[in-house]
Amino acid sequence: MFWPMTAIALGFCGIAALGVLTARVLVQVRRLAREIDVSSRRITRATEELERAATPLAARAARTLRQE
Fold it and tell me: pLDDT per residue over 33-56, tens digit each?
């Protein structure tokens, strides 16, 4: 009777450990998703700023090329 009870207890401990690890992975995945969202917004903002800054430069370059 000792060995079956030990096997059941070890099985329960294994499942509990997997549950704890699953919760930790879930927390890290959520944290990573937030970081990806923040980074994506920063990249989008930087792209928009670059486009706004490049527009006058492109217009000036086009006028220069037309004059030549």
Answer: 999 999 999 999 999 999 999 988
Which amino acid is located at 62 in the chain?
A
- Torsion, Cα of 22, 26, 27, 28 (10° steps): 100
**Residue with structure tokens 């800054």?**
53
- Residue-range domain boundaries for the chain: 39-68
Can you tell me the distance from the alpha carbon of 58 to that of 50, in angstroms, rounded to the nearest whole number?
A: 12
Say whether 68 sits in a helix, a strand or coil.
Answer: coil
Question: Residue 59 — pLDDT band, cuts 50, 70, 90?
Answer: confident
